[in-house]
Amino acid sequence: MSPTPHALGEPVVRHEARLKVTGAARYAAEHTPPGCAYAWPVPAGVARGRVVSVDTADALDIPGVLTVLTPHNAPRLAPADDPVLAVLQDDRVPHRGWYVALVVADTLEAAREGAAAVHLDYDIEAHEVVLDAGHTALYVPEEVNGGFPAVRERGDFRSGFAEAPVRLDASYGVGPLHNHPMEPHACTAEWREGRLRVHYSSQGATLAGETAAALFGLEPEQVTVVSEHVGGGFGSKGTPRPELVLAVMAARETGRPVKLALPRRQLPAVVGHRAPTLHRVRLGADADASLTAVGHEIATHTSTLKEFVEQAAVPARIMYASPHSSTVHRVAPLDVPSPSWMRAPGEAPGMYALESAMDELAQLLGVDPIELRLRNEPAEEPDSGRPFSSRHLADCLREGAERFGWERRDPRPGATREGPLLLGTGVAAATYPVYLSPSHAEAHASPEGGYRVRINATDIGTGARTVLTQIAAAALETRVENVEVEIGRSDLPSASLAGGSSGTGSWGWAVHKACEALRARFAELGGRIPAEGVTVTADTEQETRRGSAYSRHAFGAHFAEVQVDTVTGEVRVRRLLGVYAAGRILNSRTARSQFTGGMTMGLGMALTEHSGMDPLFGDFTESDLASYHVPVHADVPAIEAHWIEEEDPHLNPMGSKGIGEIGIVGTAAAVANAVCHATGARIRDLPLTPDKVLARLG
User: Fold this and answer.
1) DSSP SS3 for 643
2) Rounded-to-10 torsion of CA 211, 212, 216, 217
């Protein structure tokens, strides 16, 4: 095999690729210690109330069943920072699907049979699970996710909008959405001599280990969480979930290792979801297409357990220049499962509404939608007045237009037809913030000439191992084959979780710093490495604590071509193209995979993914992949992902921005705008299913 270059940006093949395709990569549910038992949870069958009694006799009579844990006999945990983790601690039922019992058995089959044999009686209470824009429980929280204030006012929006010559006032809706990673949420827990070892499908083993230690009264060093290979998470595995607590609890109670893999049908109720968002966007503009007022209000729901507010109006604060702006979030606590992080939280639904509104405004003004965006490019961040560390959205729009062939577009809605098919094209902008979190790394040099880097990063399928190896090799001025990277265990130097497109930037900074320190140590030793090797550690606590004087964001432009069948109402996407400004691209192979994967998720958001809340039973009706439709290969057209060369010295030593979610953000709006261009009909609620399309075509 020819040597692999170390240069950042090179398309280095993933280091774990062969392990995965041969089945040698081991996931959480594939670890089976000797004597392993199996657990199966019992979800609540009511939407709100209390467990009055639990009859476990029939379950315990099943051969192989070891125990049944219930709110009446489960061990007590220390108070949980996240109330979602306080499972089996009392008799309350805050929503349908809340776990009210756990059956542990010698075999998976016995555990599942035992769970079906548990009989529960409830004191049922009235529930409320449906959100609407006028819900009486809506209130304005102090802040929303990410620590952003819930309300921001700039100028005099009311007057600015009222006096604008051209005004748009439109409402948009994005229903509940769910993460369905290919690998199920799973945990295998084992106690050994007072120590706990857990194989856990998690986006952050450090946090999982700290959480388990706190709940079970252990010191952090007594817990090791292994998340070496994770088959997707998309936010749902970002924070610890009930399966971790239940598996550890069952292992302690039985004295045996216990494996728990959550059934897919139970995931919507227990691992978080994207809460529905109802949007009102108001845009005012002068006749020359300059925005004078930008208003974005959202309403969403949270659970009665905790406040979780999708920050969907925040992107409107930074996207376009205007003298007047108003952004407001409202939330209603309902008897629903707790929402959580999901695939570009805030930006994905927020930018769908904003970019759809920009397209509608362009039609009212009679200007090209790309030109409207270019005319309203801000010189600095409108909300804070801070300079952008880099902002090349205009370059993305222009290059994307050229690559896509935008100039050949007939701007008239409904003007292009192939038999029963209406054709249309659409564009949307995208943004995602740069997040950086403190991380620690260790770098070791052996006298034989090899290097080992250790950091508790998590590879959730993004190629983190490979890119971190490239970062280390570049800092050490060696080749990637000389560097070994250890990740995915909580006994490694602690690191931030894989989320918010922050992983590579955060972990890479710590790795780069450790490798730079190792090179400095070489110099001190005169290039002589002792027999035991040389080890250095580094962290970025100080650097990340300082923050930045700059507004730091990735930007992108999405283009879509669609066909709409006038007979069936089916929408098919023919082409998707994205151009991104995301700092320095560290691995062109894995980056293109991230961009196209994000665009595929955005396509699903636009056309197929939907979940409804049953008002009578209080649960999500689409609870498996037979009813919750994610895109498959047949749905994914030709997708192109490109990027511009962007130099940004205000980020990290690599000059990189996160890329995992920027590909999602603008795709749904680009598809929806293309459908409107094809048909002349604006459908403002996602997804764009055939029933909605046919209703508008009629």
Assistant:
1) strand
2) -60
209 SS3 class? helix
* Angle at the Cα of 90 from the Cα atoms of 84 and 93, rounded to 5 degrees: 65
Judge contact between 664 and 556, C-beta under 8 A.
no
Q: How far apart are CA 551 and CA 548, in angstroms?
A: 8
Would the CA dihedral through 237, 461, 499, 379 be positive or negative? negative
Q: What is the pLDDT of residue 1?
A: 35
Kindly give the pairing relationship between strand 277-285 and strand 571-581.
unpaired
Per DSSP, the three-state class of 217 is coil
Per-residue model confidence (pLDDT) at position 7: 74
Pairing of strands 416-418, 421-433: antiparallel
Task: Tell whether the model's pLDDT for residue 641 goes beyond 80.
Answer: yes
Question: How confident is the model at residue 637, as a pLDDT?
Answer: 86
Nearest CA to 52 out of 61, 64, 44 is that of 44
SS (H, E, C) 576-587: EEEEEECECCCE
Residues 670 and 352 sit within 8 Å (Cβ to Cβ): no
Residues 6+ positions from 39 with CB-CB distance below 8 Å:
102, 103, 104, 105, 111, 246, 247, 250, 258, 259, 260
Helix spans in 381-496 (H): 393-404, 464-476
Residue 547's pLDDT is: 87
Averaged pLDDT, 248-257: 98
The answer to whether the beta carbons of residues 267 and 180 sit under 8 Å apart is yes
**Pairing outcome for strands 451-454 and 195-200:** unpaired
Structure tokens at 462: 């993004």
Catalytic residues: 661
Mean pLDDT of 400-411: 97
Give the pLDDT score at 4. 46
**Are 487 and 503 spatial neighbours (Cβ–Cβ below 8 Å)?**
no
pTM, whole model, 2 decimals? 0.97
Asked whether the predicted pLDDT for residue 698 surpasses 80, the reply is: no
Position 5 scores a pLDDT of: 52
Cα gap 299→280, rounded to integer Å: 9
Give the pLDDT confidence of 207-239 residue by residue, as tens digits.
Answer: 999 999 999 999 999 999 999 999 999 999 999
Between helices 667-679 and 690-697, what is the axis angle to 10°?
A: 30
Q: How big is the chain, counted in residues? A: 698
